[in-house]
């Protein structure tokens, strides 16, 4: 989750917020609204870039688009340096560390000493520290945890508050998620105009999910208008 941002530079949540369970009936042609909810760890390609690629092709892509660390440090030393910076109050390091605990890159153990697959509680603590300093990625990541109830008690109102703070700083995933939230009325009063406003902000920055969501909303509005016209 660095977002889940740049060290998680991108924690994307990607769930079809509007997905419906199969009922055996013919699927609707109505476009799907997509919310981002996936956390990407440091050094890991976002899932959208992995689609259709073999492990070898993913490794080659990493070399092309991601900087290669050549500082002579071991992964353990880099982690210790990151934790030191985080403990000293560096918001970027705190967000990155939170992302590592969320994804399981950073090892945590339970009370019995068993290694956890991931540690969302510790992740939430580091995201909180960074979010308090106004770090947009951490605000988004913490918002995701509140929205899903991972590591913290589920609180959609708090999630909206954090997404809004992040979105106002230009975080496109937060903007897209707010669009979905206002469109669906999750934790807020349903407001299609606000949904469109946030989708437009993210779409203007090239966010593919927001562009698709905006198209879906406009198509739905057009269908509703045509149906209303036919009833006149």
Q: If you compute it from the alpha carbons, what radius of gyration comes out, rounded to the nearest whole angstrom?
A: 19 Å
The number of helical runs is: 10
CATH hierarchy class name? Mainly Alpha
CATH topology group = Serine Threonine Protein Phosphatase 5, Tetratricopeptide repeat
Query: Which architecture name does CATH use?
Result: Alpha Horseshoe
How much helix is in the residues? 55-70%
Instruction: Say which CATH homologous superfamily is assigned.
Output: Tetratricopeptide repeat domain
| Count of DSSP strands | 4
Main beta sheet, described?
2 strands, antiparallel
- As for the number of domains, it is 1
Question: Low-confidence segments, ≥5 residues, pLDDT <50?
Answer: 1-28, 38-42
How are the SSEs ordered, and which strands pair?
Layout: E1 10-12, E2 15-16, E3 34-35, E4 38-40, H1 47-50, H2 55-65, H3 75-87, H4 91-103, H5 120-132, H6 136-148, H7 156-168, H8 172-184, H9 192-204, H10 208-231
Antiparallel strand pairs: 1-4, 2-3
Helix pairs in contact: 3-4, 4-5, 5-6, 6-7, 7-8, 8-9, 9-10
């Amino acid at each position: 989750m660095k977002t889940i941002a740049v060290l998680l530079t991108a924690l994307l949540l990607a769930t079809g917020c509007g997905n419906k369970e199969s009922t055996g009936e013919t699927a609707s042609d109505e476009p799907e609204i997509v919310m981002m909810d996936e956390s990407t760890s440091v050094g890991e390609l976002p899932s959208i870039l992995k689609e259709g690629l073999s492990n070898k092709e993913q490794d080659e892509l990493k070399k092309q688009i991601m900087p290669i660390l050549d500082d002579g440090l071991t992964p353990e030393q880099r982690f210790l340096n990151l934790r030191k910076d985080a403990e000293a109050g560096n918001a970027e390091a705190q967000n990155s560390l939170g992302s590592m605990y969320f994804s399981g890159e950073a090892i945590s153990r339970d009370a019995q000493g068993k290694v956890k697959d991931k540690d969302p509680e510790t992740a939430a603590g580091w995201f909180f520290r960074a979010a308090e300093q106004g770090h947009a990625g951490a605000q988004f990541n913490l918002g995701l945890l509140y929205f899903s109830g991972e590591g913290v008690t589920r609180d959609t109102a708090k999630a909206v508050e954090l997404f809004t703070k992040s979105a106002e700083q230009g975080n496109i995933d937060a903007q897209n998620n707010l669009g979905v939230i206002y469109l669906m009325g999750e934790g807020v009063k349903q407001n299609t105009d606000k949904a469109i406003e946030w989708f437009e902000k993210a779409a203007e920055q090239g966010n593919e999910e927001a562009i698709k969501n905006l198209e879906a909303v406009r198509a739905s509005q057009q269908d509703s208008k045509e149906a209303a016209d036919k009833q006149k």
